[in-house]
Design goal:
The complex is a heterodimer.
Chain A lengths: L1 H16 L6 E8 L10 E4 L2 E11 L5 E8 L11 E6 L6 E5 L17 E4 H8 L1 H22 L4 H16 L2 H9 L2 H29 L7 H4 L4 H29 L4 H31 L12
Parallel strand pairs in A: 2-6, 5-7
Antiparallel strand pairs in A: 1-4, 2-3, 3-4, 5-6
Helix pairs in contact in A: 3-6, 3-8, 4-6, 4-8, 6-9, 8-9
Chain B lengths: L1 H16 L6 H18 L4 H18 L2 H17 L7 H9 L3 H11 L15 H9 L2 H9 L4 H13 L5 H14 L2 H17 L3 H14 L1
Helix pairs in contact in B: 2-3, 2-4, 3-4, 4-5, 4-6, 4-9, 7-8, 8-9, 9-10, 10-11, 11-12
The chains are: A alpha/beta, B mainly alpha.
Chain lengths: 304, 220
């Protein structure tokens, strides 16, 4: 009898200390998504579990209503200025974290519905690594600038491409070609400038890419996704590559035509080398982007 | 135990994050082959188109994979069939003499020989119904199988094979013209329009043949 009483009182005491008999307070929160939210999920304050998510429901307004149950002894942690954050750790189950700065602030009114903020470890790491983010912004800005420059019909890159196309067109006419080689040093200079421009651009973007490479896995859909900046940039590079290859073919033709004019072929040889360098550089850049894209499927050479 | 589980999860996570990047030669080889296919079908400047194919071969050779090299040539042959040209098979024969592969050799047969010799189970899955249909030698069944092919290039390849086997009708050619037109593949479009013109001319439909001729003149 005494033993039974002792056992019962021990269980009762433990249950009391665990808050079994204490009255729970229900608070209502809202979330734009129910993703990662589950009933029974712990509500944590400073690493201690102070309650549980008791119910989830979808409101008429299309938001998720989250009810949390907080035992009376922990209610003092839930204040008017409390922030509720859904933390999604890289490993482990998600949890609802309460952050209260001022414990003396008025208690959270039961009719008030604060919104749950979402945080993930990856985001937290990025937030903390401010210098990296500054760099990332800089990189992104540069890439955006480049893509803008590429898409701007009057932009520098397009001017270069237009020049290249004009040259290709001029090369295709033998008369103007000979004129260019013999009497018009300005034209040769223009080709040099065109190629130099393309090479500079490749070198610049190569630098950007090296920095982006360090961020693989930490970046967002915006950078790597199907419509992200990098895939778009890759496509633009491929376009440039095609145009340069076209120019390359023209050079081959010119070499055949002018094989007997020593001075001209010397110039052309130099130009040809520059063109090859530009093609290789841009081609490598496009390949690097392909290899960087985590969303891109592994390339496969298969039967059509 | 918990720590072991965490370690295991971390290992799995990291192996996922740092999965090996594909080799450069494969990325480049694939890229140039795709550029070649697109340029070829779009009727871009032949010299430029050829450079893409050459570069693709160079890259594949860097990896030393004869199976992929054979596949690159088979892709080229399939494109030629898709635009109703005679496929150039010499290079493929040289490769297969050095490194025969049943799947590639079967696809080669499919492209070049009589359908009876082809093992349908070794063909890419997309061609299975078409392979079966070819054996029936029934134009309607062949056309039906082709219309069910979802991939535009494969559809054109199958249409080209139907023409080579003399198992085609007006509907099949018109569908091929539509496919080429939708994709903006000018070379294929012109080839299939020309085939349509010949079809009308040989079936004594002079008006339709003349209309297609005018269309061709405007597009060339």
């Amino acid at each position: 009898m005494v033993t039974s009483l002792l056992i019962a009182s021990t269980i009762g005491y433990v249950a009391y200390k665990k808050g079994f008999f204490s009255k729970d307070h229900i608070y209502t929160l809202s979330s734009k998504t129910g993703e990662n939210l589950i009933a029974g999920m712990p509500v944590v304050f400073l690493g201690f579990t102070i309650g549980r998510v008791s119910a989830l429901e979808l409101s008429d307004k299309g938001v998720v209503i989250v009810r949390i149950k907080i035992p009376r002894q922990h209610v003092r942690m839930i204040r008017d200025d409390s922030k509720f954050i859904l933390e999604k750790p890289l490993i482990g189950t998600p949890r609802l974290v309460v952050r209260t700065i001022d414990l003396s602030a008025p208690p959270l009114a039961t009719n008030k519905i604060p919104e749950i903020a979402v945080s993930s470890d990856i985001n937290e790491i990025i937030k903390r690594a401010e210098p990296i983010i500054v760099k990332a912004d800089y990189i992104l800005e540069n890439i955006v600038k480049i893509t803008t420059a590429l898409s701007d019909p009057e932009g520098g890159v397009n001017r270069i491409l237009r020049d290249a196309e004009t040259l290709t067109h001029r090369f295709s006419k033998r008369n103007s070609l000979l004129e260019m080689l013999v009497n018009d040093p300005e034209s040769i200079k223009s080709i040099h400038e065109t190629l130099r421009g393309l090479k500079n651009m490749a070198a610049k973007t190569d630098g950007i890419l090296q920095r982006v490479d360090g961020m693989v896995g930490k970046s967002e859909e915006q950078l790597y996704g199907q419509d992200g900046v990098l895939p778009q940039f890759r496509d633009i590079l491929r376009d440039i590559l095609s145009k340069l290859v076209k120019l390359n073919v023209t050079f081959d033709n010119i070499n055949m035509i002018t094989a007997d004019t020593a001075d001209s072929s010397k110039n052309l040889k130099q130009l040809r080398n520059e063109l090859d360098a530009a093609i290789n550089s841009i081609g490598r850049l496009a390949d690097q982007i392909d290899r960087l894209l985590p969303f891109k499927q592994k390339p496969e050479i298969k039967l059509p | 135990m918990k720590k072991c589980m965490m370690l295991l999860l971390l290992t799995l996570f990291c192996s996922g994050c740092f999965a090996a990047k594909p080799p450069v030669w494969l990325v480049s080889g694939h890229k140039y082959l795709e550029m070649f296919k697109e340029d070829y079908l779009a009727n871009k400047e032949p010299a430029t188109t050829e450079i893409h194919f050459r570069k693709s071969l160079e890259q594949i050779k860097n990896g030393g994979d004869l199976d992929l090299l054979a596949k690159a040539w088979l892709n080229r042959m399939a494109l030629q069939i898709a635009v109703l040209e005679e496929p150039a098979s010499e290079e493929y024969k040289q490769i297969t003499a050095a490194a025969p592969d049943p799947v590639n050799d079967n696809f080669f047969l499919f492209l070049t020989e009589n359908s009876a010799a082809v093992d349908i189970s070794l063909l890419p899955e997309i061609y299975h119904p078409f392979g079966e249909a070819l054996r029936t030698t029934n134009k309607t069944i062949v056309a039906g199988a082709i219309f069910n092919i979802t991939e535009p290039l494969s559809r054109l390849v199958a249409s080209g094979l139907a023409v080579r086997n003399n198992l085609y009708d007006e509907e099949l050619i018109t569908a091929a013209v539509k496919t080429a037109s939708e994709k903006g593949w000018k070379r294929a479009l012109l080839a299939w329009l020309e085939r349509l013109r010949i079809f009308y001319a040989t079936s004594r439909n002079v008006e339709k043949a003349a209309a297609i001729s005018r269309r061709l003149e405007l597009l060339r």
